Automatic annotation (TrEMBL):
PROSITE patterns: BPL_LPL_CATALYTIC
The keyword Secreted appears for this protein: no
Domain of life: Archaea
Record keywords, A-Z: Ligase
An annotated Gene Ontology molecular function: ligase activity
Protein name: Biotin/lipoate A/B protein ligase family protein
Matches recorded under InterPro entries: aa-tRNA-synth_II/BPL/LPL, BPL_LPL_catalytic, Octanoyltrans_LipM/LipL
BPL/LPL catalytic domain: residues covered: 1-194
Amino acid sequence: MLRIWRPVRQVTFGRRDARSDGFETAKRLAHQKGFPPVERRVGGRAVAHTGGTVAFALAVPTTGIRTDITDRYDRVVQLLTTTFRDLGAAVKRGEPPNAYCPGSHSIRVVDGGKVAGIAQRVRRDAALVSGCLTVCRRDVAATVDVLDPVYDALGVAFDPGAVGCLADAGGPSSPGRAAAAIEAALSTEPWHDSDQ
């Protein structure tokens, strides 16, 4: 099952953020910037959703709690990297230093900022693979404006220059076009562990 949407304006905080001494301050700062704070159970550090960013969640069956976690990450990152390149974007797997929600399953502009991050939550018989994509320049500015003080309050390194978008990479600036491409890429794949 695949869901693609544009989340309302909010900052979603991960569990590590919630354990930080600066968490209450970070939530207050996000709210003051017009981004209601929300806690999530998947992923790492704080992520800004601007109302224009594109999110996806893909529920897939698994045969065990630790089955093919790395394979699922690799497949989704490869599929999306190829999809974004097909849209004209110069992107690659990886992440610039001090990016928001740091992790090894990200997509970035070649020699530029992070455009997408992928997370995964695994249960005994299913995995939820999710991600968020920054599509256009105005969303980069809004992301930096809210995350710079939030990450400072959390005591986590953050480089505003590490935020990129699909349009910066030469791809489309339309969230609808990006969402349609993600849907086409992820909905045509077989997702049973034995199909990989």
